[in-house]
Amino acid sequence: MHILHIIGNFYEDGIDDHLAVFALLVVIVFDILLGFSRAWAQHSYSSSKFRKGLVSHVAMFLITALAYPLCVFAGLEMAVDAFIVSMLFAYGSSILANLSALGVRIPYVDKFIRQNIDTDKFDIEEADYTDEKEKSDETK
Fold it and tell me: What residue intervals traverse the membrane (predicted)?
């Protein structure tokens, strides 16, 4: 079978049976939009950083959209689904970091993520993950 035929048949039947893949594709687009919004809101837009992020996100989007149907055809659906779920968690932490930097607070989950996230990767300052109450408790 021709590769494009396999991919076409996969998307022709619909992606209803593979919601994790659809969720990952949506999350990737949402992460791009939030990253751009964060840079715009913080006045820290850098074309090189934007280009690097956009290229990596678009590459992940295309690889997922094109390779997943081939993996399903090859019978590797369960192994690739594990990768998809791990990428959902990775992009989810990126989305939470961007939301946190934009000032959106999600109780409990947000605090846990902000304390355990790779602060170097997401450029989160201590003020972003330390509540005012915690600061005042430390000074007493």
Answer: 20-41, 53-76, 82-104
Amino acid of residue 82: A
Q: What is the DSSP string of 22-75?
A: HHHHHHHHHHHHHHHHHHHHTT---HHHHHHHHHHHHHHHHHHHHHHHHHHHTT
pTM for this entry: 0.73
Mean pLDDT, the chain, integer: 81
Which residues, 6 or more positions from 52, have their beta carbon under 8 angstroms from its beta carbon?
none
The amino acid that residue 63 corresponds to is: I
Structure tokens at 122: 């997401």
Q: Encoding tokens for residue 16? A: 């209803």
**In which region does residue 75 sit, left (phi positive, over 0), alpha (psi from -120 to 50) or beta (all else)?**
left
pLDDT tens, 58-86? 999 999 999 999 998 999 989 999 999 99
d(CA 76, CA 67): 11
